[in-house]
Amino acid sequence: MGLCIAAQSFAADAVKLRLMTAVYSDQNGGALKRPEGVACDEKSLLVVADTGNGRILLYTVSGEKVMPKGTISLPQLSYPIRVQIDPGGEILALDGKSRRIARVTSAGEFKGYVEPSGIPTPGTVIPRSFKVDGQGNIYLLDIFSGRVLVLDSSGKYQREVPFPQKYGGFSDLAVDGNGIVYLLDSVEGKVFSAQRNATAFTPLSGSLKEDLDFPVSIASDSRGRLFLSDQNGSGIVILGPDGSFRGRQSDFGWKDGLLRYPSALAVTEGGNLFIADRQNSRVQVFTIVQ
Amino acid sequence: MKSRYKIVLLLLGVTTLFAASLALSQDKFRLKPGANGKICLNCHTAFQEKMKLPFIHTPVKKGQCSDCHNPHTSSHGKLLAENASRICLKCHDGIVPGKARSVHKAAADGECVKCHDPHAAKYRNNLLLAGKELCFNCHKDIAKAIAESKFRHKPVEQGCLGCHTPHASTGADSLLKTGVPSLCTNCHKADTPSFKRQHMNYPVAGSRCTSCHDPHGSSQGGMLWANVHSPVAKKMCGQCHLDASSADALKVKRPGFELCRGCHADMVNETFGRNQIHWPLVDKVSCQNCHNPHASRQDGLLKDSMKTLCNSCHRDTARRQVASLTKHKPIQEGQCTKCHRPHSSSNVFLLDNTNTINVCNTCHAGMQHSTHPIGDNVIDPRNRNLSVDCLSCHRSHGSEYKFFTYLNPKIDLCVQCHVEYKR
Asked: Measured between CA atoms, how close is A152 to chain B, in angstroms?
């Protein structure tokens, strides 16, 4: 009886990804080149950091279609690697070369850089990645000072959570609807978490190295599940809210549905998963199927 | 009274059983009277000479050959009564403590005979050779380095066991008797004026001595490692550290790469001028993720060999190469910088060149693949956003197929594009 329940429970949690579409070009038919960042809001706006071309691309997601909407090219964003959309519809993009976060409107107007202010222990801040929550707060993975900085939308310091004592190397973070912050350790293949207002990170998962190679991006969905982009393993790994391994999707390859050294991924409330399929120079859109 | 009687009876029973089993084990092969210790030598006559050596293994001395050998049959070589890697542990159990921090590989593998003769030897503890000569039999690289050193650590001249334990260490890495620095400060008293003077009055008594000094010997003054960071060589500790008299003297003046930028400004600026940075360079540990700021045996003050160093984070890449059917020479030899730039690059994968074909042609110039079209103008039929290059077919860090192709070339690889030939 116990075994039956467990099997049913696992079946209920099983997640599969069904390819919806693959995005290859901008509104002029120009090819994407090694995109590294991707973000999507609930209002159907898809933003892609077209890293190799040094620009931001905008798309509209409608049903199973993704239609090009616009291009943003700015001297302040010569090498965008991570993008986010804030609740007001503005785009925040981390530039890999300057390692600064630029704020731009969806019309392409540069509004300035996110300048952290009011930090109690001032020092150099180097963001490796960042995320924006539903209130517009910015969660910044500051690898130079070994902490996650929480800033309000204007960049004003709210709080910080130091990195755990032992780790390999963090490359991304995620924030869920409950304010739980997740840290992704690429080197050790581990996920750490900190509850809302916690002052320290604790391990959420053990080492996942048997199930992935070198994860570089993490996103959470409304069910508390975590999606990891395994760059060197070319796949997507799904974890349960407790950090347990729930499955692995996609594989290495060129054809639609397959991945080559994927970078950032994003998940929407509507159940779509967007992934920057970097070495295939495209963005792929999957539907999360239960 | 009744219970005391029971205890006496029980003790008597146990003693009788023990005595009986001892007698049985000593004569389990029912040798003729007086044959014990002699009968084997009737055939193994060469052993007579062995028995003249000064140090004889106790069972051999007692003629108890059957303690280790079965005279009739065995499932193990040399008619041993137990697997060769475990037989010594029958008597010498505990030679490797359960909580050992470091274990001699030979001991861990049960290869006791690499150092000991199980029967008799010229040297104490049945050792095959005396002193450091025995160790140098395997540790040839250390022997060579010591022989070439201008300055040799005196205890090394006297033997390795001044600092190391031969089997296992419960307290330290590298089979050291105790950890560093306490092992070193046993002889090199940190409170002496000369010690303080040599270390520019910095409170280094608690620091790891081997981060600067080669404990075996060196041709550098002060037995520093072969490659010394210029400020260390010039004894200009204050260039990076706070003043020796300050409360936190070992603290560095600036965090991370900001400290190194003071002298290495050109390199740091050049690094930051490229699109992609190797992220560890700008994290909390920064340059010291890969470099030793004081001295190193490696060129470029690397903390370890490039292979070990890069693989410490990129373990999956290392595994891929190990499992690969065809080895890629630069990876096999740990020459990661043949293709990658370790600090930063404007190219994907931190490659040394924008064009993958050019990266490969650095070594494979003779293999221009003249029969197969490659290059920017050749669109990959599988993906219209890609052109065909070396990585279209080859996985540079290895695969399960010959010449590290992604897929089986006889079945799956070519027909990815040449679909008309798909069977």
From this structure: 23
* Distance in angstroms (rounded) separating the CA atoms of residues B101 and B177: 11
Buried b / exposed e along B208-229 (16+ C-beta atoms within 10 A):
ebbebbbbbbbebebbbbebbb
Please calculate the CA angle B179-B305-A142 and round it to the nearest 5 degrees: 80
Chain A residues inside the 8 Å CB shell of B283:
126, 128, 143-144, 146, 169
Residue B222 Cα, gap to closest chain A Cα (Å): 34
Using a CB–CB cut-off of 8 Å, the residues of A that contact B are 24-25, 31-34, 52, 78-79, 96-97, 99, 123-124, 126, 128, 143-146, 163, 168-169, 171, 187, 209, 213-214, 232-233, 252, 254-255, 278-282
Distance CA B26, CA B313 (A): 56
Look-up of token digits 């390859």: A253
pLDDT at residue B408, as a whole number: 93
Helix B306-313 to helix B315-323 angle (10° resolution) is 110
Q: Which letter, b or e, does each residue of B375-401 get, where b requires 16 or more Cβ atoms within 10 Å of its Cβ?
A: eeeeebebbebbbbbbbbbbbbbbbeb
Name which of B279, B308, B276 is nearest A169 in CA terms: B279
Q: Given CB atoms, is B207 within the 8 Å cutoff of chain A? A: no
Tally C-beta pairs within 8 A across A and B: 77
B45-75 tens-digit pLDDT: 888 888 899 999 999 888 888 889 998 999 9
Nearest C-alpha of chain B: how many angstroms from A222?
30
CA distance B347 to chain A (A): 9
- Give the SS3 label for residue A202: strand
Query: Closest to A146 (Cβ–Cβ): which among B284, B315, B316?
Result: B284
User: Going by C-beta distance under 8 Å and a sequence separation of 6 or more, which residues neighbour residue B190?
Assistant: B181, B196, B204, B205
Domain of residue A136, CATH code? 2.120.10.30
Per the structure, the complete domain to which residue A44 belongs is given by: 16-289
Closest CB to B316: pick one of A31, A171, A214: A214
**Does residue A145 lie within any of the structural domains?**
yes
**Residue B186 forms contact with A (CB below 8 Å):** no
Could you give the number of structural domains in chain A? Answer: 1
> Any residues with CB less than 8 A from the CB of B94 and at least 6 apart, and which?
none
Task: State pLDDT tens for residues A169-227.
Answer: 999 999 999 999 999 999 999 999 999 989 999 999 999 999 999 999 999 999 999 99
CA distances from A242 to A203, A230, A246, B155, B334 (A): 10, 19, 10, 54, 38
Residue written as token pair 């001032």: A122
What are the pLDDT digits (tens) for B363-381? 987 666 567 889 999 999 9
Contacts (Cβ under 8 Å, ≥6 apart) of B39: B31, B32
Structure tokens at B198: 């040599």
> What distance in Å separates residue A6's CA from the closest CA in chain B?
33
Does the beta carbon of B275 lie under 8 angstroms from any beta carbon of chain A?
yes
Question: What is the spatial distance between Cα B120 and Cα B178, in angstroms, rounded to a whole number?
Answer: 31
Kind and range of the H or E element at A132? strand A127-132
Give me the interface pTM, i.e. the ipTM: 0.93
Q: What is the pTM of this model?
A: 0.85
Strands A265-267, A245-249: pairing is unpaired
- Rounded CA separation B406/A260 (Å): 12
